[in-house]
Every structure is written in C-alpha cells, then in structure tokens.
Amino acid sequence: MLPGAWLPGACLLLLARLARPCPAGCDCFAREVFCSDEELAAVPRDIPPGATDIVFVETAFTAVGARAFGGSPNLTKVVFLNTQLSRLEPDAFGGLPGLRDLEVTGSAFSSLSADIFSHLASLGKLTLNFNRLEALPEDLFRHVDALQSLQLQGNLLPTLPARLFQPLARLETLNLAQNQLAQLPDELFAPLGSLQTLQLSNNALSRLPPRLFAGLGRLRELFLDGNGISELPPAVFSQLFRLEKLWLQRNALGHLPPSVFSSLGSLTFLNLQGNALRVLPAGLFAHSPGLSGLSLSHNQLETVSEGAFSGLSNLSSLTLSHNAIARLPAGVFRGLTELVKLNLGSNNLTALHADLFQNLTKLELLSLSRNLLATLPPGIFDTNYNLFNLALHGNPWQCDCHLAYLSRWLRQYSDRLFNIQTYCAGPAYLKGQVVPALKEEQLVCPVTRDRVGYQAPGPEDREPGDSWDLVAEDRAARKRCTYSNPEGTVVLACDDAQCRWLNVQLSPRQGSGSPGMTFNAAQGWELKSSCGSVRVTVSIEARTGDP
Ligand SMILES: *[C@@H]1O[C@H](CO)[C@@H](O)[C@H](O)[C@H]1NC(C)=O
Ligand SMILES: *[C@@H]1O[C@H](CO)[C@@H](O)[C@H](O)[C@H]1NC(C)=O
Ligand SMILES: *[C@@H]1O[C@H](CO)[C@@H](O)[C@H](O)[C@H]1NC(C)=O
Ligand SMILES: *[C@@H]1O[C@H](CO)[C@@H](O)[C@H](O)[C@H]1NC(C)=O
C-alpha cells in the first residue's frame, strides 16, 4: 500500500476527535466511552453528550460522588471493572432516568446505602459481582422494579433480608453463587414469580427452608451445587412445575425423600454427583419422564433397584461411576431406548447379567472400567449395534474360555476399545497379556468334573439360542481341540488341519507345587481333551554366553 493511502483516514479521525471532545484519560467512540487511566481522579464531568455507554477499567479513584453522571442523562449503561471503588455516595447514580445496565465488578466496597438505586426506574440489569458485600439493606431494590437480571456472585453475604426481593416481580435471572450464604429466610424468593434461573452454587447452605422455592412457577434452572445440603424437605421443589435443570452435585445428601422430584414433570437434566446417597427410593424419577441426563456418580450406592430408571424413555446419558455398586438387576436399564452414554466405571461389579444391556440399541459409549469383573457373559453386546467406545481396563479379566465372546467381539470391532491397556489377571501364564491381542485358542478352561483336559469353546459348547455371529468359513474351521495335562501347565491347541499353539509353563511358581518344566531337559506328557489324547515331548536347552 502507498504510504499516503492511510493519511486521509488519520486526518478524518483527528477531525472527529476535535469535533467531539473526549475526557482526559478516556477514549471515545461513536456512543461508547472507555476510561482506563489510573490518573483519572473521578468520574469525568465532560462526557460527550451523544454517549450512551461508559466503561471504567482499572481506574484508581475510590468514590463515586452524588449525581456524578448528572450531566449525561442519556447514559443507558455504566460499568466499573476491577477499579479501586470502595464508596458509592448516596444518589451516586441520580439523574440517570434512562440507565438500563449498571455493573460494578471487582471492587472493594462492602456495603451499599438503601437508596443508592432509588431513581433507576429503567434499570433492567444490575451486576455487582466479586465485590466485598457483607450485607444488603432490605429496601435496596425498592425502586428498581423493572429489574430482570441481578448478579451478586462472589461477595461475602452470609444471609439476606426476608423482604429484599419484594419489588422484583419481573426478575428473570438471580445469581447469588459464591457467597457465604448459610441460612435463607423462608419464602425469600416468593415474590419472584418471573424468575427463570436461580444460582445458589458454592455457598454454605446445609438446610433449605421447606417453602424456599414456593411461588417460583416459572423457574427453569436451579443451581444448588457446592453447598453442604444434607437433607431436602420433601416438598421443597413441589411448585417448580417448569423446572428443566437441577444441579445438586457436591452436597452432603445421604438420602432423598421418595417424592422429592415428583412435581418436576419438565425436568430434563439432574445432577446428584458427589453426594452420600446409599439407595435410590423406588419411583424417584417416575414423574420426570423427559429426563435426558442423569448423574449419580461419586455417591455410595451399593445397588440400584430394578425399577429405579423405569419410564425414562428419553434418558440419553446415565452416569453411575464411582459408587460401590456390586450388583445390578438384569432389567435395571430396560426401556431406556434412547440411552447413548452409560458410565458404570469405578464400582464393585463382579458379574453382569447377559441381558443387562439388551435392546439398548442407541448405546454408543459404555464404561465398565475399574470394577471387579473377571468375565462377561456371551451375547452381552449382541443388540448394542452402535456401541463404539467400550472401556474395560482396570478389571481382573480371567482370560479363559468364558472370555471367548468378548475376545471375538473385540476382534470383530477392533477399533472400539477405549483403552487398549486392558490386561488379563489370570490364568498365571496369561497374566499381563493384553486382552484384545489374545488369540481365541489361548482362551482355555481348567479341568472340571465333566471335562477331561482343557476345553476351548467350540460349537459343541453353545447354549441353544446363543447367537455368535460366525461366518460359515469360521464355522467349518471350528472343529478344534485343546489338550492339556491335568495341572494345566502344558496346553496344546489344534484344529483339523494342525496344532497351532503350545503353552508350556516353565519353572514352578514359588510354593505352588505345580510341576513345571526345568531347563536343559526333555519331558513328555500325555495331554487329554474331549477329542482324545496326544503325547507331546518338549525339550528345552538353555546355553550360557550364546546369543
Ligand atoms: C439526549 O438524546 C436526545 C435524543 O437523542 C438529544 O436530543 C439530546 O440532546 C441528548 N441530551 C444530551 C444532554 O445529550
Ligand atoms: C422426549 O424428547 C422428545 C424430543 O426431544 C420430546 O419431543 C418429547 O416430548 C420428550 N418426551 C418426554 C416424555 O418428555
Ligand atoms: C468395593 O471395593 C473396594 C475395593 O475392592 C472395597 O474396599 C470396598 O469395601 C468395596 N465396597 C463394598 C461396599 O463392597
Ligand atoms: C428386547 O426386545 C425384544 C423384542 O422386542 C423383547 O422380546 C425383549 O423382551 C426385550 N428385552 C428387554 C430386556 O427389554
């Protein structure tokens, strides 16, 4: 670009500045004024008449005097961000009848006089976040009845006066998060008939007055997370007919009244993570059929009753991880046809019923990690056509014939395992092997009363009705025998054509007393299977110093 090309623009800018003077320490734009000079001693008196918004950022003056903006009646928005303000004189915002948006965030004042907002009849949004407010006068909002949004997050409020919100019938959003609220007057929120979002996260509430939320018939979102709530009054949510999202995580709930959610017919999301729940009362969610996200992780559930989630036909995400669940009834997930995500990780599950996930055709993500599972029943994922992310790590997998279904499923859908670090805990000679890398003929079972030698899963083992998906070719090659000695230290797997796999356990394990083989020896065994027996001789020579 030619050097001269930008000069006319610069001259125009200069002219514009001359034509519309801007207070020292501020920058003026069409309708906005930004003041961020630490030298600024007070709110400037010469705000351009056309300005509607003024923003102070990190300024150093500490007080706003009476009617400081009185010469600029057209201002609609006044903002102080991270300034040194510690005092707002009475009537500081007098003379601003059109002010709609007032924000003082990140300042040091700890109290407000009762009439500070008294002439702000147009104020729709008031933000007083992250100051040091310790108390509010009961009449503070007496003349701001147009208010729709009130933000008081991050102050030091321990409680609030009972009639504080009396004039705020039009309020839609109220944020009281991150204060020190330990007690709230009964019916504090009763006048807020238009309220849609109420945030009480991260306070110190341990009990809720029974009628605290009475009258909030329009409320859609209620945040109660991060308090110390140990008990919920049975009817505390009974008028929240339109509530859609309820955050109760990180509290101290040890039990729930059976009907506590029974009026929440519009509920779609409920978070109960990080409480101390041991049981879920029957029918707890029966009146919230539209629930689509439910988290119960980090509780102390030991089981979940058969009907706990019945009727939740819209549920798409269910999180039950980090509990102490040892057992799940076969039908606990029945009817959850929309379920996409199911987290059962970090529990004490030792076995799963073969029908547990039946007909969960939309299931995509399933975590069974960090449980006590040694095996999975055949067919368990047969109807989970969309399952593409399966977490199995952190279980003591017993890599024997019972794991053949899982092994085959993993081989068929090799890309679906979330964490490949899924290891065998037994038998001894497969300990530490990676489950998805195992060959099917390695998955053999020990001698039982009915079986001679080790037995690999073959077609003859199928239960009628088992529906393993074998291609015809695979089926033909299936005439397979796995021979072993009675101790299981020598295992040989063969099919019609050849023997493909031999496992010899070498030195006996300490104290196990099982006869293993020693080096520099030849040894023969009579190995048996249901197909008959074979004789095998193995010689092993170990030479020192020979690469
Ligand atoms: C306020 O705005 C009106 C209409 O936009 C304008 O006529 C008037 O001059 C402004 N007043 C001041 C004090 O700037
Ligand atoms: C389930 O979700 C669908 C689609 O979001 C919605 O139309 C339907 O009303 C919901 N069902 C219930 C019982 O809320
Ligand atoms: C769950 O398993 C852990 C670890 O194995 C154990 O410490 C805990 O006692 C078990 N909890 C229950 C309720 O069985
Ligand atoms: C799964 O669906 C089939 C066919 O609709 C049905 O017979 C079976 O009972 C269902 N199983 C479960 C556990 O819902």
Automatic annotation (TrEMBL):
Keyword presence, Hydrolase: yes
- UniProt keywords, alphabetically: Carboxypeptidase, Glycoprotein, Hydrolase, Leucine-rich repeat, Protease, Repeat, Secreted, Signal
Main subcellular localization, coarse class?
A: secreted
Taking every annotated instance into account, which residue ranges of this chain make up the domain LRRNT?
21-53
Extent of the signal sequence: 1-21
- Which residue intervals define the domain LRRCT in the entry? 395-446
Pfam family for this entry, one: LRR_8
Recorded superkingdom: Eukaryota
- Offer a single GO CC term for the protein: extracellular region
Output one GO MF annotation: carboxypeptidase activity
Q: What is its subcellular localisation?
A: Secreted
The record's note on quaternary structure and interaction partners says:
Tetramer of two catalytic chains and two glycosylated inactive chains.
Q: What does this protein do?
A: The 83 kDa subunit binds and stabilizes the catalytic subunit at 37 degrees Celsius and keeps it in circulation. Under some circumstances it may be an allosteric modifier of the catalytic subunit.
Name the chain's protein: Carboxypeptidase N subunit 2
- Give the species this sequence originates from: Myotis myotis
Species lineage = Eukaryota, Metazoa, Chordata, Craniata, Vertebrata
